[in-house]
Amino acid sequence: MPDPKLSLRGVEKSFGEAHVLRGIDLNIGAGELVCLIGASGSGKSTLLRCMNGLEPVDDGAVLLDGVDIAEPGFDLGPIRQRIGIVFQSFNLFPHMSAYENVALAPRRVLQETDTARPRIEALFQRFGLADHINKYPDQLSGGQQQRVAVIRALAMRPETLLLDEITSALDPELVGEVLDVLRQLRNDGMTMVLATHEMSFARDVADRVVFMDQGVIAEEGAPEDIFSNPKRDRTRRFLASVLR
Fold first, then answer.
1. Are 174 and 148 in contact, with CB atoms under 8 Å apart?
2. Beta-sheet pairing, 160-164 with 191-195
3. CA 11 to chain centroid
């Protein structure tokens, strides 16, 4: 792999007595889609939040293009523009239209006003929401709201996108429309790290799958290796439980 876009070295994170991340080493290449899999509580969400500084690390380094953004006092404002994050909860403001939800951050953070509108409208068009741009969140399905949340992150023009279980709150019939968005972004070469329980998506689309267990990376590799020939017994047991 060439120099990684994002690199974690010896990352440790605890919440009180709970030791959540235990010496995580992970490289994410530019344009790579990495899927984090593992049981709930294995550390996937915390790892994502440490990648863009939403959670400070207790020890270790988080390198973005070789610069340690986990250093105490590092200005994370510009970093969070470069590393977008989408959560399981849509977190859309109910009193704002879909467009207003998306335009808020470019207006406040990037100081863009009317200049952002053509770009935002193009995102709504691309992801099949042009007819819903002026609707309010309660007028949208869960899948549509989650697509608006992805568009909101993309409106900041990030270099890397972190996605935390973004389909787990959706009805099964709505999952596919959100995963189609991620397929399009992957084809564009967007660097993405996705925590997911969607094993078929990880198998079909990921460049690399990382299996986390009790705060460590237990195994990582190409999807065909992880799903067809896992090396560790713990990986085999996990996959047997979720693929039944």
1. no
2. parallel
3. 18
**3-state SS, residue 69:** coil
Q: How many CB atoms lie within 10 A of CB 44?
A: 24
Buried b / exposed e along 136-165 (16+ C-beta atoms within 10 A): bbeebebbbbbbbbbbbbbbbebebbbbbb
Counting every residue, how long is the chain? Answer: 244
Q: Cα-flanking dihedrals φ and ψ of residue 129, to 5°?
A: -120, 15
Angle in degrees, 0-180, between the axes of helices 142-154 and 117-126, rounded to the nearest 10: 140
* H-helix or E-strand spanning residue 28: strand 18-28
Instruction: State the alpha helices, DSSP H only, in 127-221.
Output: 142-154, 172-188, 199-205
Under 8 Å CB-to-CB from 136, ≥6 apart: which residues? 94, 95, 96, 97, 98
Q: How far apart are alpha carbons 184 and 189 in whole angstroms?
A: 9
Give the pLDDT confidence of 42-78 residue by residue, as tens digits: 999 999 999 999 999 999 999 999 999 999 989 998 8
pLDDT per residue as tens digits for the range 132-172: 999 999 999 999 999 999 999 999 999 999 999 988 878 88
